[in-house]
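Figure 2 data, in text form.
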Amino acid sequence: MKSFSTVSSTDQKEVLFEDTHQLLESMSGLTGLLQILEKEDPYGSFFYGTGFIVRLKKYGDEESDDFYAIVTVSTAYHIFNDDERSDIPSYKKVNEIWSRSTIKFKLDYNQELNSRDSEGRDSDKSGDSSGSESIFSDAPGLVAEDTVSESSSSDSEIDKKDKLITFYGSQLLETDKDLDYKSDWCAFECKITNTSHIKIVEERLSSYQSCMSQLYQKSKLHEDINLVVIIGHPHMKPKRISLGQHRKFKKSPEMEILKEVRSHQIWCRYSYDNVVCNGISGAPVFIWGQPISGFGYWFGHPHNHSETTDDEDDDHKKVCVGKSTIGTENIV
C-alpha cells in the first residue's frame, strides 16, 4: 500500500476530502446545545449557546452500581453571564448564575424549535450584524439517539420532550481568569451514570481523536490550505456548519499570541471570516493544520467560537470578524 505522501496530488485531495468529512462528522457528534435555565422558574426564559465534549473519564468498576463517568464540556464563558457586556467579565456573577441554574447539554439536537424553546434569551454575542445571508449548511451525520433506553438518573437521561440524550452540569471548572484580557473560555463537568450514554460518548471521542491525529499528519503536506470550520446551534436550531478562513483584518490580527504557557506551547486566539449567528458562542472551531492539543492543566484546551466584531478588510469594506476564545497550541 502506498503511503499518503507518495500518491498523486489528485488522489491526496480525494483522501483529504474524505478524512475531513469524517472528522467533521465525529466533531458533530460531540457538539451539543447548551441551555441555562433558572431553577426557580424552569419554564421561563433561559440562556443558550453551544458546547463541545473534550474529555471523558471513568471511575469505579464498570460492573458495579457505583460506576460513573465525568464528561468535560468546553464552551464560551460569557454564555453564563447575564450582565451587560463589559470589558472584564464578572466571575462572581457567573458563579451566582451557576448556583441558581440548571445546566442542560443536549447531544444531537436536530429538530426545529417549538413555542417553549423560542422563549430563550440570547446570551450570545455572535450575531451577524453585516446583514449578509447565512452560509450555514447542515452538519453531517446527525441522528437523534432516541433508541437508547431511558435512565432514571438525574444526571443523564433521555429528555421526555425531544427524546435526546441530556447531560446536566455538575461543576463549573476554573476559567482563564489569571490573564488580563477577556479570554472568554470556560468548561464545565457533567456526571454520567448511564452506561449506554458513557459508551456513546466514549466511542465518539475515540473516533474524533483518531480522525484529528490522522488528518493533522496529512495536513503537513498541504500547508497551503486555509480552512476554518465551526459547528454549532444557531438560534437553538439544529446543528449547522460554517466554512471560512482565518485572516488578518484592519484591527484584528490573524492569530494573536496572548501568552507563552511553557516551552513550545502558547495560548492564542484566531480571527476568521466565517458567517455565524446568535447561539454559536461556545461552538468548536476546527483550524486546518493546527497542532493537536489535549485537554487538562498541562495540555491546555481547544478553541471555541467567542464573538464577532466590526472591522474592515483590505479594501476598507466593513465586515464582521469572527474571533475564537483563547486556546492552546503546541509550537512544532
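Caption note: Residues 113-119, 124-138, 140-154 have pLDDT under 50 and may be disordered.
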